Amino acid sequence: MRRVEIIVSFILIILITMSGGCINAPQGEKTESPVIETAHEGVDEHISENTSPREGAKATFPAGTFKPKRPDWFSYSPKDSVSEVVSRISEKYNVTESPVDIPLPPRSLSSFTGAADGIEFGLFAYPNSTAVEEAMNGVVGFLIENGFQQGDGTFWERGNETYTAFYTYERYFYVLFVARTAGGDSEERAMRLSEFTWSIITIGPSPGKVLGLFLPVKVAEGNWSEERGLRFSGYLDALEGTVEGTNVSAVFLVYRPREGREVYLQLKEAFLRNSWVEEEYINTNTRDPAGHLVVSDYFEANGSGVYIELADVAGMERLTLLFGDESEIKETVRELWEWDDPTASLLAEGNGLPRGTFRPASGRSVEPEMVISMVLDDLRKDFNITTDFVDIPEVPAAAWYSGRTDDVEFMLLVYPNATAYLTALDELTEKLLAEGWERTDDGREPYARTFAWDADMITVFAQYRYNHYLAIVVKKPRYSTSDFFWHVVGTGGASPGELLSFGKLRNDVRPWNWTAGEGLEFDGYIYKLEGNVSSGGARAAVLFYPYGLGREVYLQLKKAFLEMGWVERDYVELPSHDERRRLAANDLFEKSGKAVYIEVSTYGDMDVLILLYGDKSSVKISARAMWE
Q1: 37, 199, 498, 595: least surrounded by Cβ within 10 Å?
Q2: What structural domains does the chain harbor?
């Protein structure tokens, strides 16, 4: 009996750790319905003629229900979550799918029932912790009504029957596990179910941990937001109340990837629409061991402050809303993150646009030398490559390699962005022409050039690889049948420039290098396009950065504008994504009759940062044109 007690106690500890406290007695517990009427479902695709807040209007707290659009069941399938648990059970037990004689909870998104080694069980997927707790309490309530008594932990007994019911987090859903066994004494049944439970339990990140273990502040639970008419839905888990030691009211919500940012954008729009104003940037660190900050905003009105934040924590999105006194909110924000402030070394000045150089504070995840190493590893699978000096002029590069394969001499050169590559390409062209080579391409492809001299030819091309531009320079005899060059080119990815040529941005921007004249410089980008937007006429700068680094520059720009007296009181109503981009954050600042719009969105494995400058109406028109 002692062994059973130890096993049961240990399982209880594991389950509580996994789910953030999902084992609850049902008596007297009030559960919130998982289905709530919605007033804000995603970002409205309709653009009204006037989306500006009323001038002089008194600020009010937003009311309504904020929720992401309907989940993408192709990306997040409840059936997959159930199947994953069934697969783990099948590794240890002979599972047969069949009807079972157990309580079947309603409204599950996907389910499985079957038997294994004398145990009947069911698995039922639910969208969030509220829904699964309601379902589990319904099962336990049914057992109590039918004469079952609670034994150790999650076991319920009557006569020669024993049930267990608990839930676990599995791949963005909660899976309720209900199992029944009969025969033998109570200890034998408990042992049988305890051992069976081990095939279900996994240890890893969960929404409960995001709101518990990975949340640096303690919250005294309460329900203040609904009293103000503010409701949330579509989340995985939620924590609401007052931050301990303060008077700051807080809501923390966990969403599936990409769904949290939809709710964040809705919240920001709602506060601006209700006449809250952003005039100050709250300095904050942006990382801790579990995740990183994506975007944040701080609004003030009526002597109170509101801070909203979106963070990526343990592979999920955590949305934070803090409401209260300005100084207490700032102190709470400081506790949320431990290190890395991308704006710490920011030096910007000026009366109009900020003057200075904006660059990511962090380095790229892949170093130039690593790019060459990974490319060579792939090439050596198909070619016999020898490191050697080659008869090709040298040009500057962040990293380079030269070698031979069969009758081909080649160089691999790595550059941080397209500008650096094109500069080196011009230098290489000058050196080749000086040696007597003849240029043979027609000049229509900016990244490619070909040269010929007697019986030899040289081909130069560059592609986007691993957050850099990789240039390949190949010299070979005219009669060579080697496909080495085409093999390298064929295994590369599309560059930002190529992506733009198929999208709206390049077609909508007439090139003109205007930022340098304003003293506004950028560095650390992969690709840059600047000019005038044909729709609206605003000046534009479009910059591609490695994923995550564009957001650091965005935060620097945001801080610079706010510290220079620009104010955010209006917004540009946009969809949350199109076929290529997914919006992460945007701001519309005003000052002295001018407006600036900044935006950062994800674009494949890159961040794309957009800055628009001009009068307010033209900036808003141009911003919308970027998403048409």
Answers
A1: 37
A2: 2-31+70-204 (no CATH), 205-341 (3.30.310), 382-493 (3.30.310), 494-628 (3.30.310)
